[in-house]
Amino acid sequence: MRNIILSVCIALSLLTVSCIDDDVSTPQDIEIQDFIWKAMNHWYFWQADVPDLADTKDDNENDYFNFLRGFNDPEDLFESLKNQSLDDFSWYIADVEAQLNAFRGVSVSFGIELPRTIVRTSAESNDVVIFVAYVVPGSPAADAGIERGDLIYKVNGATLTTDNLAEINKIFSDTSISLGVANFESGVLTPKGNDISLTAVEVVENPVHYSSIIETSGTKIGYLVYNGFRRTFHSELNDVFGTFNSAGIDELVLDLRYNGGGSVLTSAYLASMIDGSQSANSDFAKLTYNDKRNPENGFIFSFFDNATLFNKETSESEGTVNINRLSNLSRVYVLTSDRTASASEMIINGLRPSLEVITVGTTTVGKNEGSITVVDAPATSSNQIFTDLEGRTSQHTVGMQPIVFQIFNSLDQSDYSDGFAPNITVNEIDFTANILPFGDENEALLKAAIDNIVGSVTKSLHPSIKSQPLGKMPVRKFSQEMYVFPNDDLNK
C-alpha cells in the first residue's frame, strides 16, 4: 500500500547518516547554533542553493565553529540560512512545546481572529477599523459578547488611526487588553457600549467552526466553515460529513477564507470526505524533498477510507474511524481570501484532477511548500534525525519549522505560488459595514456561491459605508502552515 509512504525519512538510512557527525564534540556556547546548521543542512528544501549550507561547510572544525560563533542569537543564524529570495514561510521556534500545543488548537489568547486588511472609516478620515472575522466559542472574547462583524476601533483606550496601526497587534501579543467595539449605523461608527477588558487564557479551538445544510430551489447545500487542519479534531470533521451524507446533500460549499493550513494528513482526510469517487490508495498529493532526502518516486499521500484519531492532550493515536465519504459530487465550491493558504490550497489543487473546484472570494496566499517540526534530538534511528519530538533535549526549548518539501497533485501540478485567483470575485472587505454571520444566506461570499449553484445572478450588496482598504496586518508565525509529523505513516 502507498498510503503516506512517509515517516519523515523512511528508508533513507544510507542517504542521511553521513551528514550528521556525532563524533565531533561541539563547544557548549554554540550547541544551539550547531543544531540549527546541521538540521537545516539535512532537511532544508533549498539546501543546495544556500552557500552556507554546503555539505563542505563543517569540513574544517575550527572554521565551522568560528562561523557559528558569528551569531550570538541562534535565530539570526537561522534567518541567515534561509533562501532569501524564495522562502517566506520557514520559522524559528523559541518554545517547541508551545508550538506543539498550537498544532493541537491550544493557545493562550483572547479568542479573536481578524482579517488581514485594515480599513479607513472613510476616504476623508484617518480613523481606521478592523472587523472581527470570528471568535472562538468559550473564549474570553466570546464570553464578553464580541461577535463576527464587530468593528474594533480602539485598543487600550487609544482610537485607531493611520498613525498607530501597530496597536492592533496587541490582540496577539498582550495577555490583557481593552477594546472599543462598534458597528456602523446609518453610515456612522457607533460604539456598542463601554470598552471591553479581556484577559488571555488557554483556549482550545475546534477548527470545525460552523456547519449547516441550506435548502434552496430544491437543492441541498452542505456548508462548512473550517478554520484549521488540526489532526486532533478528525472525529469532529468526520461527523460533519456524516451529517452531510445522511442528509443527501447535492452541493458542498467549503469555507476556507480564514484557514491558513495545517496537517497534510488532515488535508488528505478532508479530500477523501469530499471526493468519495476516488478509490483508497489513489494519489491525492506528492511531496518532493531536497535531493538528499527525496527518494526516486517522492512521498505520496493518498485518498483514504479510514482515518486515524489523535488524542487532544497528547496527540497520540487512539484508533481509527471509517471516513464518511460523499460520492455524488461533481464539483465543490471553496470560499477563499488572502488568509487561505497551504493545506487549504492543497485541497484546491489536489481535488482539481477529479472535481470541478469553483473558488469564490479573493486570491489565496500561494504557498505550495510545507514543513516539519525540527528539534534538537539524538537520532535513535536514521528516520528520526532531528524529528524525535519526545526525545528532544531538555537543555533548551529551541526548534525550527523549515520548509522541507513542495507539494504536487496527482497530475504533477504545483503552479500556484502566486495563489489561486477566484472564479467568482467577492472581497469581504468591501462589506466591512455589513459583515453577516456564517450561514446567513445573504452573507456576501456564501450568497455568491449559492447564486452560482442555483443559477441566479448575484445582486450587489451595498454596505452602509464604503470602506477604504489601508494596509495589511503582518502575517503571524505559523498562521499559514502545511506540515507533516514523524508518525504520519500510521495508515500505511
Low-confidence stretches: 1-23, 478-483
Q: What fraction of the residues are assigned to beta strands by DSSP?
A: 25-35%
User: Describe the biggest sheet?
Assistant: 8 strands, antiparallel
| Tally of helical runs | 11
Structural class: alpha+beta
Q: If you average the pLDDT, what whole number results? A: 87
User: What's the Cα radius of gyration?
Assistant: 23 Å
Helicity, as a percent range: 10-25%
Q: Give the CA-CA distance, first to last residue.
A: 6 Å
Shape: globular
| Extended strand count | 29
Compose a concise summary of this entry.
It contains eleven helices and 29 strands.
Write out key terms for the chains shown:
492 residues; alpha+beta; six-stranded mixed sheet; disordered N terminus
